[in-house]
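From the thread on structure requests for the teaching lab: each student submitted one protein with a one-line request. Submission from student K.M.:

"Model RNF213 from Mytilus edulis, tokens only."
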Amino acid sequence: MEKEIVIAEEFCNTKSPTALRNTLLKFADLMSYGKTVEAVQISLKIFKFKTNVETYTDVVNSFHKLFKVKKGKDGNLQDMFMKDMEAVLDRVESIRKFISDEVSEILEVLKQATSLLQFLEEVVDEDIRNLIDAVEEHSEQFVRESTVSDLIEVKRFFYPILKKTYGDEFTDFFSLLQKQLKSGFHSIPAKINDCMENLHTLKALYKNVANRGERTKEIIDSIVDRGKFCFRMESQKCEVIVKYKQDKKNVSHNSSDLSDLRSRPSFNECRR
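Reply posted by the TA:
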């Protein structure tokens, strides 16, 4: 567009006003402005910011209203005046510098992954790395270890974003997204898609591990409160058995059972 403006100025033997030139350049890059507006729109819808969103909602509405009014029956823009565009595009421009192509790509993927984001919000403060150890034990459905790794990576990526409270500057959200992208994370959009395709299985795996953790805590509490330890020497090896009553039934655990309990992540939680 810069070249075309110069040609037009030479042909008309006149110099375009700076404001007009800038607006023409922005109009030439209209697709990019549309992507910025869409990124803002997706963010407002998915992350549900509670403060200082009116300004950005107004930008989105103004942009869409501008082109809705100016479209003819054939879908083409009609009677578009520079003064109509200038104010709206200037407002979009003030936001666009915070939204890179990589950020836009992630937001575009998230548009179809709101249920995954809701799940991440539910487990945001939990350490889900133990899901890797449980993959082989999960009997309900098959889930690849790489998919679980993707979930762990996606959670790490979004952790500071989900935990942060955004104040007066909505653009802080986009800046934080960009910061995360520069922190060594790779292929996040692809990993989000992988997690979405397997979300049901991942949730089932998480629930399975969570239930197992609760059961582990119950067993450990019973051992600590009511357990009686028996030690027996067999072939120069000490065998340990712990016994207690649970719901009027006799329960016992041998050395192998106790070792298994010690290896579970929830064992360390019980010790705290």
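TA comment: The longest helix spans residues 199-226. The beta strands are 228-234, 237-246, 249-253.
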